[in-house]
Amino acid sequence: MRWGFWPAWVKDPRKFTLLINARAETVKEKPAFKNAIRRRRCLVPADGYYEWQAIEGGKRPYFIHRRDGRPIGFAAVSETWIGPNGEEVDTVAIVTAPASADLAALHPRVPVTIDPRDFEFWLDCRSDEADSVTPLMRGPEEGEFVWHEISTRVNHVDNDDAQLILPITEQQREAERPKPKKASPRKTAAADPDDGQGSLF
Hints:
This protein is mainly β. It has three helices and nine strands, in the order E-E-H-E-E-E-E-E-E-H-E-H.
């Protein structure tokens, strides 16, 4: 599926704002998502996800994952967009919720995580309603997830390897530390040979 939700009623996706997240608090009412949350709930499997924290001199990336190391099932909604020529594009958006106090240190919102015991219940859309799954649309409990700083190599799309989720080493951190910008030499005006003084600035 394509990450970036296109509702079925969109005529031209090029003129439609890309929807990558659906807020748990409003997903049942928003025109873009209200049918999908009732009829097309899905799960996005993952080992973890990335988040960036603003620091002086830039942003540092972190890898967030379950404390127990188990795989994750992110709550999501999907839609198949059908174009004017019959082309079909399957699209998806992840459902998000307010973060717990610990995860809020990185970002105020987090993906909704469905417990494996509730996978079947979340995916069962036969009742054509979403009220029954509303209690599942919440972020992880405090302490359920942990995170560690990783290399800024993750910022480049051409890097795609298992090293991206490993904790950063001190050597890597030092190599990636922003270098202080060198001050460009200030040009000084030439002294007037007739004024009898040297220029101080």
